[in-house]
Predict the structure.
Amino acid sequence: MLNVAPPQDILSRPTPIGIEQAEAALVEHYPRLTRLAYLVLPPSLGRNRRVLTAHALVQRSLPRKHGGAEAAIPAPRRGDPGYGFVRRQVVRQALEAGLPLRRRAWPKRAQLPPVLPQVWGLRLFPRSGGADELTLDQRLSALSGPARAAFVLRGLDRLSDAEVRRELDALGVEDPDGAVEEAGDPGDGAALLEAAEFDPCSLQARPTDLMRRRQHLRAALVAAAALAVCGTLLGLPGDGWGPDGAAAPSYARNPAAEAALDPARVVRVDGAVWRTSARTDFSVWPARGSLTGDSALLRRALAVWARPGRSVQVSATPETPSGPPMGAPQLLYAGRVDRVSVVLFYDGLRVARYAEPVDGTSGAALDFARVDGADAASAGALVVGRTDGNVRYLTAPWVREAAVRDLLDPSAAPRPLPRDRDGVTSPLVSPAQARDCTSWDVLQLREDREGSAGRLLTDLGELAPARLTWGPPDTPKDVTGTAAREAWARTACLLPTVRSHGVRTVNAWQFARQQLPEANGTAAWLCTRADTWSGADSRVLAQFQAPGGGKATAGAVAARAENSAACGTHEPRVLAGVLWKSRGGHWYVLAAGSEDLSRVAVSGGVDASERGHLLAVRTQEDARAQLEGRLADGTRVAALR
């Protein structure tokens, strides 16, 4: 850890920094610089990309000229102006990485995925921390980029407020005072910044999806062969059907491909098909909207889908291909939403959303979401528009009633949500775009049948909202009862940890209740599992909900895992533990597992075991315990981590 020099109130005079001096500082302080970059980078990048980007930013922070680089460096630590120079370059690039991509400007180098370093076939991420580290990570993710930089510079490098303001001003931040005020006092979080949770130099490695990797390799070979064949078609003449708007130039004239992009051949389902069909998914949605007959709009949407131009902003949920349709797609919607012309297509695997301003094609956007295997529960709505932090949904034809429910207020009645004749809802606040967690509005849908329970869908930043459920992994149900709503009230604010991952469902399961020592009440243990449309990259959180603190107080995360079978249909069991302090000031190791566990044991600093699926053992504040469970047949069950 760097020694902190006494703060100074004036800038030192500009100091020529030679490349050798900067390189020496970079090598000496490399772990601290990468930690600083990792903390300032936007958490939305994901832990694997943040690790690689942090290393890339530090490694390209040297001066480009050997003759030196003039920089006004604040009073350096331990008399080392080289560290101050390199740190400024690192923070500048980390802030640039968080800027939104602009449609008419070249992206900055920091905004793109790093070319080097790269590790093929592995996911790299820091070691997981505890509840305090997760809370700090959520606090950082809620801050703007400049505020996050101010927080880290104050907490990690112990700069004064005046020094932080000068650094931000030198980096070109428009409002350094506002950034410092937004960051607030790091307090106890300053020490947590040194935790292994935020150390991109101490990493864990996990493989990527091996089966999918093989499939991608085979697909790449097939694509290469197809490209060689299609190359003979380059440059063939033909005028096409008309202007293609924001689409790139056509690269081939293939009759089958052109047929798939002909607006006259788009599939349109009759409005009554869903009532008699054996299927209840997107394939029976009728074509709706005021612009379903606008052939020019449909032509532009199909052309951009096949050949998005450089000005088109394209996004896709993880594991979702963004290539052209294999055949004529099905039209779900074409209409105007908040001064934007929107078209929704479905091709059996994906939903594609094309959007363009009503006054032209400049600024067109194309979004994809994987929705294969959808059913009535997961095909209840699609996001049709986002504006000013609000979201609008297009609801399924079998939806009889739509309402809004605040997950953080379990006792409040749902609020009616009006819809137009095409099934498009009025705007509601999107929790996926909110900066804090003071409320969490979800969409509640009732189907057009008797006894239909209200399904809850939440926006997680993608075209297909995620369904929320409650109960054991093998029999999850809709969130309708009092106990389910109260548990979700203390779980909702953890949903940002699974945002933008292609999530299909999020199930919360109370796997245990535990009487706390010293008559401290009863705690609940929950396992929250987010499953994706692709079937891979699942996220699991084990949550400890202590009594008290209010119905909407978020529980403490006892453990979390990625790509784990725990709490799922393949492995409907879990074991987790926490270090807990009683009101009397005594420390305990608490552990709980699903009811099929017959014994729980703890070791490491304290050795004990108890029959059943619960354990409570007196210990010390700094205990580092290891948990293990056993089933009745002796099968070992490891703790979630």
